[in-house]
Amino acid sequence: MKTKTIALLGIALIGGSTAFAQKSKVISAFNYNKSFQRDKDCSELKKGITAIESAANESSTNTWAKTYYYGGNLYFNALTAAPEECRASIPNALDKSMEFYTKMLKYNVEDNESIKNADLNTEAGRAMLKNVISNKQTKYEDSDWHRDVMGYKIPVMANAYINKGVEAFQNKDPKGALENFETSIYLTELNNRIDTLAIYNSALAAENSQQYDKALKYYSKLIELNHEGAKVYGYKAALYRKMGDTTSAVSTIQEGRKAYPEDKALIIEELDYYLQTGKSVEALKNLDLAISKDPENSLLVFARGTIHDKMENFEKAEADYKKALELKPDYFDAAYNLGAMYFNQAAVYNNKANELNYKETTKIKEATAKAQEYFAKAKGPLKKAHEIDPSDRATMDSLMKVYINEGDNENYKIMKAKLTGK
């Protein structure tokens, strides 16, 4: 019996010796860090890291808040205080700082055992940590450690992840950029704060890495936060169009219009949809509003003219085409459309005259006179269009017909030669 008792005691002593050794490593790590802070000797920093990594992998010390606080400090110093050559030799310092400090935060909680089993590599675990430390009633083993990490270390690391994400984005690695931006968001949210820059960067990185669901999530978050105002609705709608989801794109623009009814960009976005789908009445309403915001915009005025033209509101179309030319004298489309509108009206009266009974001489003369009037009106803007773009064949063809109608053989031959090369 005595032999067995002695053997059991021996086992107990050996186990206790191992635990003591690991605890000693935590203290050694602390001392190595102090030595590094004093002398900036990289070898001391690395000795400290070796010691603390060993302690973090042993059951006797891997649930100590102290282990992770001291380890976080070593890696944080490698990140922020080490000479350049030393810092380069510890390339994982940022990730390890975050790993150690966030573990310190969960093991430092005194009155919530469930958080100590949380897996901080999962969204659920991270959400649990955030909820626990955002509770003002939570008690900590060491409040000074908590304040140091939350007040100073976390913001520095969050900013470092932003910079790392930007570097990855510039190096054409949007997926890597997103991972860094999302880590920055997580760290910032631990402090119950919101970094709209990190969210915006995440949206861009997610879109560029074709993680569209994440991009939509971040654009929606920016809308919720009212970041960048109306612009984000446009970004989100553009992403929906890229995804081939026109319905959601239109819905997003219309939501934006409700939130920002006076925003010119959203008005034009919605206008584009109405124009593409042939909703002329709705398009006119948007154009009237857009022009009231930007009356010197020749493109908007011209667009309204085309809708009036299509709806046969010729007087309003004429006014808009002329206004567009006034705003932009070299506006080919405005000059051509005005001439074409007159030309088409002339053709309508010509056809009317041809369809009348030959005995209805008065009506024939009236229709013919109207046709001549509109042919004469067409000549000026068509010549203007030809001056702006001498190579446009449709303009030359229309002018030839105007000259034939006028009996102007000389100009007809000139225009024919330009058109046919003969």
UniProtKB/TrEMBL annotation:
Gene3D superfamilies: Tetratricopeptide repeat domain
Signal peptide coordinates: 1-21
Keywords recorded for this protein, A-Z: Repeat, Signal, TPR repeat
UniProt-listed SMART domains: TPR
Residue stretches spanning the membrane: none
GO biological process: receptor-mediated virion attachment to host cell
A GO cellular component annotation in the UniProt record: cell outer membrane
InterPro entries given in the database record: TPR-like_helical_dom_sf, TPR_rpt, Ycf3
Pfam family, one: TPR_8
PROSITE patterns: TPR
TPR repeat start and end residues: 196-229, 298-331
Coiled-coil portions: none
PANTHER family to which the protein is assigned, alphabetical: TETRATRICOPEPTIDE REPEAT PROTEIN 6, UDP-N-ACETYLGLUCOSAMINE--PEPTIDE N-ACETYLGLUCOSAMINYLTRANSFERASE SPINDLY-RELATED
UniProt-recorded name of the protein: Tetratricopeptide repeat protein
